[in-house]
Amino acid sequence: MPAPSPHSPADDTPAISDLTTLLAHMQPALNPGCYVFVTLPAGISLDARQIVASIREAEGLSVVVAEKLADELDLPIVFRAAWITLTVHSDLHAVGLTAAISKTLAQADIGCNVVAGVHHDHLFVPFELADKAMDALRRLSTYADSAILASQATEGRR
Fold this sequence. Notes:
Layout: H1 19-24, E1 28-30, E2 35-39, E3 51-57, E4 60-66, H2 67-72, E5 79-86, H3 97-107, E6 113-116, E7 121-126, H4 130-156
């Protein structure tokens, strides 16, 4: 079974759309385990609770599942990933979050596949680079938080 979301389904916090605030409060959380991207072969179906993410493509249903499940079903693995959840409640209309995350991880030479949920954004990075990705994301968050504090200090002097 996939790891539970770091927030409960009853999370009623308002969605944030301001980019600097999103970055400052993103609080990345590394979900335990290894996850894989696979395309389900014809005739194979999974219980929805086993699927972390999915998208229907012309070639078939692409899913992200726990590596153990893919191994048990002998599914061809395309990509092994660590799953990072940005625990901030991001607005689906927010502009620039994916770009800022992608730029930060690209500068660290880390590929990233982003999946937006209704409440949170989820990042899938190469499994062996999970710690490096977490460090880069924490640095970005600290930088954004510093920008907010600097802005508040400037406003306070007016």
